[in-house]
Write a structure and sequence with these properties.
This protein has helices at 7-17, 28-31, 34-44, 75-82, 117-127, 156-165, 179-201, 212-229, and strands spanning 48-52, 68-73, 88-89, 102-108, 128-139, 168-176, 239-246. It is of the alpha/beta class. Strand 2, helix 4 and strand 3 (88-89) form a beta-alpha-beta unit. Helix 7 (179-201) packs antiparallel against helix 8 (212-229).
């Protein structure tokens, strides 16, 4: 099971979620493009769609056309962690579906939580019809989350190798976030985590904790400004979103 969170942590995270699309949130540089990301994912989806690790099924309302949606999540994760109800309970490494059932499979920020992601991609290939697509999103530089079920990070070369080993072709590849934005996000997460720890432990440093929220906001805005001004590069995105095709 996930490491238990303190009352302060739970309250803090719930409060932050309400402002996730504003610079007040430590991960605003991630959430500011949340709607764009869901829209982008939906543009590649068609026909029968399987959403692995669907959580609150947020992508469902963005699907268009002839899409027929099925959300799958692991029972313990859905019931005990997120209190959500998928269409089907199951594991990403043993999908409870027949061969060639789906036209599109989504695996969005799921693979890092699997002890054997290659097995999952092979299962996805099995349930995809010929010409079907897997939309895979994975982290490269991102904080520990959903511990202890957080196992892996990928470079763009690791994603390509994973696709090759599983018999999938890379159709599109997108970097998520610039290096400056990734750095700003990491600093903000570290500062916010420190503030929570100080409060929960009643540490004397909590007396200066009020400085952290405005500093987080400043880092967000400065990182975004620098990202817009500096030349783009592939050095350190926070992650990748790739569209893979089954030949």
């Amino acid at each position: 099971m996930r490491v238990a969170r303190g009352i302060v942590t739970e309250w803090f995270l719930r409060a932050l979620f309400r402002v996730r699309r504003t610079p007040l949130h430590p991960q605003w540089l991630v959430y500011r493009k949340e709607i764009w990301g869901l829209t982008h994912i939906s543009l590649h989806a068609r026909g029968a769609v399987l959403d692995i690790g669907c959580a609150d099924q947020s992508v469902r309302s963005y699907l268009v056309g002839d899409c027929r949606y099925i959300g799958l999540d692991y029972y313990a994760t859905a019931v005990h962690w997120y209190r959500t109800r998928p269409s089907v309970y199951g594991t990403a490494m043993e999908l409870p579906f027949a061969d060639e059932t789906f036209d599109t499979v989504l695996s969005i920020d799921v693979a890092e939580h699997l002890p054997d992601p290659e097995r999952s991609v092979r299962e996805i290939r099995r349930v995809l019809r010929s010409g079907g697509k897997l939309i895979l999103q994975v982290p490269f530089i991102y904080p520990l989350h959903d511990a202890p079920l957080d196992f892996l990070r990928w470079t763009e070369f690791g994603v390509r190798e994973l696709a090759r080993k599983c018999g999938m072709a890379v159709e599109e590849e997108h970097l998520l976030g610039s290096g400056v934005e990734t750095a700003g996000m990491l600093v903000n997460v570290a500062l916010s985590r420190a503030l929570i720890d100080w409060i929960e432990r009643r540490h004397p440093a909590v007396m200066i904790g009020w400085l952290i929220p405005p500093f987080v906001c400043l880092i967000n805005l400065l990182s975004r400004l620098l990202a817009a001004a500096l030349p783009a590069n592939r050095l350190m995105p926070r992650g990748y979103r790739v569209v893979l095709c089954k030949a």
